[in-house]
């Protein structure tokens, strides 16, 4: 599964962006967004901001789960107390990448590989296990975010360029996603 994580400020300006892939189930941590669609990640995330603004007042939760879907891409959201939005675009692998099979023409082997892939977390982005992993990722990033904005030199809606923060986001991605 490929992920694009963005932190959006109170004025709908991007404060931080990070793209990564899954490290679970033999993943190498590299995002596998199609090259012709990679430039759409920012557009998809920012287009979901209208939905975030509608949903945020209807619930008292910080984690809003999956709020938007664009083709095979899902957008999950986490809100901070200061109205900073953490948005995670996650794209499950396509069926051709997930169900590669062993190359034999035996239908039984194709059935077993598709059954195994359908139970994996990456195969179902709206499953409770996936939702919990994304929530834990957001909580870890939120803790790192709080430590970053407590810096006396940080100004509200200023882009975060800290390599330590980027490393902590990448570590949370490896740990949970």
Task: Report what the structure shows.
Strand 3 (63-70) and strand 4 form a beta hairpin. With 177 residues, this protein is of the alpha+beta class. The longest helix has 22 residues, at 128-149. It has helices at residues 40-47, 49-55, 95-98, 107-119, 128-149, 163-176, and strands at residues 2-8, 14-21, 63-70, 73-79, 85-91.
Q: Helix coverage percent of residues?
A: 25-40%
Order of helices and strands: EEHHEEEHHHH
Name the beta content range.
Answer: 15-25%
State the distance separating the first and last CA atoms: 9 Å
- Estimate the mean pLDDT confidence: 80
Calculate Rg over CA atoms. Answer: 17 Å
In total, the number of strands is 5
The structure class reads alpha+beta
Q: How is the biggest beta sheet arranged?
A: 5 strands, antiparallel
Question: Could you give a short description of this structure?
Answer:
With 177 residues, the protein is of the alpha+beta class. The protein has helices at 40-47, 49-55, 95-98, 107-119, 128-149, 163-176, and strands at 2-8, 14-21, 63-70, 73-79, 85-91.
What attributes characterize this protein structure?
177 residues; alpha+beta
Helix and strand topology:
Layout: E1 2-8, E2 14-21, H1 40-47, H2 49-55, E3 63-70, E4 73-79, E5 85-91, H3 95-98, H4 107-119, H5 128-149, H6 163-176
Antiparallel strand pairs: 1-2, 1-5, 3-4, 4-5
Helix pairs in contact: 5-6
């Amino acid at each position: 599964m490929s992920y694009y994580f963005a932190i959006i400020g109170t004025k709908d300006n991007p404060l931080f962006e990070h793209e990564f892939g899954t490290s679970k189930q033999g993943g190498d941590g590299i995002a596998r967004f199609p090259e012709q669609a990679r430039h759409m990640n920012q557009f998809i995330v920012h287009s979901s901001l209208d939905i975030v603004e509608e949903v945020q007042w209807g619930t008292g939760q910080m984690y809003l789960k999956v709020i938007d879907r664009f083709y095979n891409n899902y957008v999950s959201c986490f809100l901070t107390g200061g109205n900073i939005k953490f948005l995670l675009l996650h794209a499950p692998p396509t069926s051709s990448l997930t169900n590669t099979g062993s190359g034999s023409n035996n239908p039984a082997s194709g059935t077993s590989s598709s059954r195994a892939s359908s139970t994996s977390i990456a195969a179902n982005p709206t499953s409770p296990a996936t939702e919990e992993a994304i929530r834990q990722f957001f909580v870890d990033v939120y803790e790192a975010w709080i430590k970053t904005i407590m810096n006396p030199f940080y100004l509200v809606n200023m882009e975060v360029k800290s390599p330590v923060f980027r490393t902590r986001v990448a570590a949370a991605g490896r740990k949970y996603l």
